[in-house]
Request: fold
Amino acid sequence: MKDLVEIIAKSLVDHPEQIAVTETEEDGIIKIDLTVAPEDMGKVIGKQGRIAKSIRTVVKAAASKGDKKVVVDIK
Reply:
């Protein structure tokens, strides 16, 4: 899941070298933290959060094969 989020985020931003993705698992829930440069925050979130919602939807669809719950947090 971490690699998927990283690939999507790098294709959206102007400064892909400043992307940091961390993945932690606790109680069967996978939490993915995506950190981007402040000037790229709007590109990752999108108008009214549409791009962020799309990223979360793609990750949840990929995680559904393994019956795991995934939470994507953008910082």
Strands lie at 20-26, 29-35, 69-74.
